[in-house]
Amino acid sequence: MYDATLPNRILRCIICDLEQSWGMWKKRVDKCMFGGGKLERYECPKCGCIFGPQKYLDLDEEFVDHDYRLLYSRYAESDSTENEIQTFRSMEPERIGPYLDWGCGGIWSRTVSRLRDEHYDVWGYEPSAETSSDFIVNHRQLISARFNGIFSNNVIEHFRTPVAQFQDFHNLLKDGGVMAHSSPCYEWSYAFTRFHTLFLLNNSPHILAERTGFRVKRRHQNGEYICYVFERV
Questions:
Q1: I want to staple 196 with a disulfide (CB 3.0 to 4.6 A). Which of 62, 79, 118, 157 is the partner?
Q2: pTM of the predicted model as reported, rounded to 2 decimal places
Q3: Do 91 and 178 meet the contact criterion of CB atoms below 8 Å apart?
Q4: Which CATH number fits domain 81-232: 3.40.50.300, 3.40.50.150, 3.40.250.10, 3.40.50.170?
């Protein structure tokens, strides 16, 4: 039923705002491992990102929040603490802070506690999964500080409105602040879940940065671990 509406749609790239009719977009199709059915995504000829599925981008935030909570009530991510710490160190942090681990994971992640044990002033934000730390908040409105750095691992591919999200990061960072986001989805990989709505291929990380007050400072890759470091300008 949803597919029947798409041929009459004008779709907009969520990185560069290019608009085209549905028929003009190059499509990549996969199937959701979490029961989300067909996943049709769109490759932008202007910036190079791949975005979608549109049926997930069209949902309101409340529905998506419930969908994530349902997912994490029965599914636990693998422990990504080591990758998260590697991403944190890519910012070349100092002991003075503070720093914010964005989407820091639920009870399966030990990143915040590990880094605080090393005397870094690190805090976490996790909106969807259960947490058990006094240094992690679950609601965006509880974050009022400005940070030296923001970092995430396996989060950026979940952004449905990446331009607005980067603008929010810009407001949360101090002048000259940095942020690091690592994900295998800077390449076309892990496309089998509806929760991955953004693949930042080709020049799209740079375009996203330029649109939101950042510049790409450096890129590092080791196998499927890929990390971009962005600097606030």
A1: 157
A2: 0.94
A3: yes
A4: 3.40.50.150
Least confident of 58-62, 75-79, 101-105, 226-230: 75-79
Q: How far is residue 13's CA from residue 222's CA, in Å, rounded to a whole number?
A: 29
What are the structural domain ranges in the chain? 2-72, 81-232
pLDDT at 161 over 80: yes
Question: Residue 28 region, left (φ>0) first, then alpha (ψ -120 to 50), else beta?
Answer: beta
> Would the pLDDT of 151 be above 90?
yes
Whole-number Å distance between alpha carbons of 39 and 57: 11
Q: Show the tokens assigned to 218.
A: 């450096």
Q: Which amino acid is located at 159 in the chain? A: F
Average pLDDT, whole number, for the chain? 94
- Rounded to the nearest 10 degrees, the angle between the axes of helix 162-172 and helix 204-211 is 50
